[in-house]
Amino acid sequence: MRLSRYFLPVLKETPSEAQIVSHRLMLRAGMIKQAAAGIYSWLPLGFKVLRKLENIVHEEQTRAGHIAIQMPILQSADLWRESGRYDDYGQEMLRMQDRHGRDMLYTPTAEELVTDIFRGHVSSYKDLPLTLYQIQWKFRDEIRPRFGVMRGREFYMKDGYNFDLTKEDALHAYNRHLVSYLRTYERMGLQAIPMRADSGPIGGDNTHEFLVLADTGESEVFYDSDVVNLSLANVGNGLDSLNYDSHEDMQAIANFFTSTYARTDETHDPKIFESQVPEERRRVARGIEVGQIFYFGTKYSEAMGATVQGPDGKPVPVHMGSHGIGVSRLIGAIIEASHDDKGIIWPEGVTPFHCGIVNLKQGDEEADAACDKLYSALTALGLEPLYDDRKERAGGKFATMDLIGLPWRITVGPRGLKNGVVELTCRRTGESEELSPEAAVTKIAEIYEGIA
Amino acid sequence: MRLSRYFLPVLKETPSEAQIVSHRLMLRAGMIKQAAAGIYSWLPLGFKVLRKLENIVHEEQTRAGHIAIQMPILQSADLWRESGRYDDYGQEMLRMQDRHGRDMLYTPTAEELVTDIFRGHVSSYKDLPLTLYQIQWKFRDEIRPRFGVMRGREFYMKDGYNFDLTKEDALHAYNRHLVSYLRTYERMGLQAIPMRADSGPIGGDNTHEFLVLADTGESEVFYDSDVVNLSLANVGNGLDSLNYDSHEDMQAIANFFTSTYARTDETHDPKIFESQVPEERRRVARGIEVGQIFYFGTKYSEAMGATVQGPDGKPVPVHMGSHGIGVSRLIGAIIEASHDDKGIIWPEGVTPFHCGIVNLKQGDEEADAACDKLYSALTALGLEPLYDDRKERAGGKFATMDLIGLPWRITVGPRGLKNGVVELTCRRTGESEELSPEAAVTKIAEIYEGIA
């Protein structure tokens, strides 16, 4: 993309309404614009990142054997009356009536609707296991929306639902989700720690929240510092050999990640914390919730009559769980975890453009030609550069590139070109090296091999 | 995808509520399930097609230089009061109040919001031309939703908005949209004819609707039979050399497609029809509207103060147009245009899976191995086969494949394998040929070259 043809409305001033850094930087980098309280338009740069995250979520869910569907934004209140949640949900549910006076709502979650799909179409245990998921806009009418996309009212969320014959199978689905979520976050350059969370009125201890450590997090968390060293790279024979069908493998990975003490404040137990964790490893910090997995057994299947014929011919209510990733909120979390005082620093896996090209002297024949050539060479390799081809001063161009956070920048100027070199700069370290344009292209291609 | 692991709830009976063939086939093929009147869940097969269409629209809009954003589902009523449309819109607009009693609505279109984004961020003519678009769920509270996704209440739509300094530039944007839409439909295997349409209360004659001829269409259309022979293939030096920046080229293509008589009943003029079109070429038929382009000048920019500083330093209200493609409705239109009594026939550009693999004797060691090998070979080429690995009778497997309409099917059985052959069948023609598994893979790969 050539910047002269793009729509990148960066702001010079820091917007006064933004209290946390991710909100400030998303506004300043022209990623979002508030449309109403807690409701945002995604401008081109923001939408590109959102779409990248969406694709990563789809890829990892597909890899785990989960199947994508798309449920509607509006739901009928009737289904929610059947489960008993219509009255329970309170003011966070946005309700309305259509022109015929029928009660409708803007979906905050979809356990009822997906259970209705299931009971309408699945009748035999032979069709299990089954996990359906979607990525769709949701709405929760927060009383005080704040922190930009981190605590908005309208948000983009992946929600998945597993249907299994037995509790054991459903717990395997739970573990499968845990592993697929860890992979998802890792590809986004995020460390999200699964923490034992509160299961609320449903009971049981089969729920984990995934938290990204950040000072601006809404949750207080307690953990053994060893937990931050756990990585999928330490598991089995590497990521690509993960066998999502193996109950044993998934259980082993789940144990590996959930045996070390890590809890949110709702489930934190000071006695266990002190007895299990040596004092020097005890940590109290704040975290941003970016996902949650949940096994809730037959709560909805019994209430809504979602049964299958079991092997013995008798009807069995299915065991279910639901599992969510906050896709739009993740963008805020990534920025909270990866920025400096100049702006955003995108991890390579989610960056909106793979690299920036800065032309120090737009209009100079040689510099223009060199930039065009770099642009074509990168594009031909399937990479997407953002070429700042405006007639601006170098300082302004650098400031914009730093603000929007592309991980790599190629700087092209007449002086360097005389020596046959351009400059390649890493946004994260600030380190630069001079190399030939061809070598710069090769290096960028190597960096993104297996990512882009 | 292996069918044993997929969720493809095909129906044996024809659903009684479905009045037109696309609705019947989408229900029978397990593509959608009604969630409420005019509101559908997209099941896996339906969602896959929806996503393919969405990607084609994104690719063609990007090619035309238009920039993707994402605006929210819910909008504040205030913006619509500013343009004067809040009261005008009537009962098709779904309105609600949030917990603080603020008037909100489920967006039916986004002229106001995109104009608000524009006026908040663009102030100079130097930032023009600019075309922003999104693909987002919309809602129109139809009094009698029917025909499945063809006339639903919640629907998925691409809506684009151009901002230009002059009327001439805006008409170039209009032509650019016309050409990009023609390319989009062509890639979907559809012939959609641009027809002069009614511009409604706004006036002017700068609007065209794109219609797919079909007996079930909601609009009566009048045209010169020559118009169905017009094709992008006859234009210039081929599709890939289209220069969207050239006013002349775009105008020439627009003229080529819009000079032959083709009008909807609102603009049909019997006198012109009879004087311009020889009797043997006059056609009266029905059509499905799958898109519309519109130039409306400064209607919104003046009402909402969307001006830029012109070259002479004075403020100028921008010239705008809006342009829509009904993405979910297109699926109905494609099926109306491409089916037979056995089921759907997907054009290669939009098929949910590139080919089916039918194993005639599941459990037979050789047949299973041959199917696995075909599956791996196709997958390795980036193609997505649907392998019917269920223990079902061949007749049932064929019926399912015919119903869901994959354009190509490879049939594998012990008898053929003894002679080293499998059978490759074209869904459209019903013709089969025997060839080696390797040759079948090569042929499928050739068919999808440049498409998949």
TrEMBL record, chains A, B:
Q: Mind telling me which InterPro entries this protein's record contains?
A: aa-tRNA-synt_IIb (IPR002314), aa-tRNA-synth_II (IPR006195), aa-tRNA-synth_II/BPL/LPL (IPR045864), Anticodon-bd (IPR004154), Anticodon-bd_dom_sf (IPR036621), Pro-tRNA-ligase_IIa (IPR002316), Pro-tRNA-synth_IIa_bac-type (IPR004500), Pro-tRNA_synthetase (IPR050062)
- Please list the reactions this protein catalyses: tRNA(Pro) + L-proline + ATP = L-prolyl-tRNA(Pro) + AMP + diphosphate
Q: Which GO terms describe its biological process?
A: prolyl-tRNA aminoacylation
Q: Which CDD domains match?
A: ProRS_anticodon_short, ProRS_core_prok
Gene Ontology cellular component list: cytosol
User: Where found, per UniProt?
Assistant: Cytoplasm
Which parts of the sequence belong to the Aminoacyl-transfer RNA synthetases class-II family profile domain? 33-347
Respond yes or no to whether keyword Ligase is given for this record. yes
On subunit structure and binding partners, the annotation says: Homodimer.
What family does the entry list? Belongs to the class-II aminoacyl-tRNA synthetase family. ProS type 2 subfamily.
Q: What is this protein called?
A: Proline--tRNA ligase
Organism encoding this protein: Ruegeria conchae
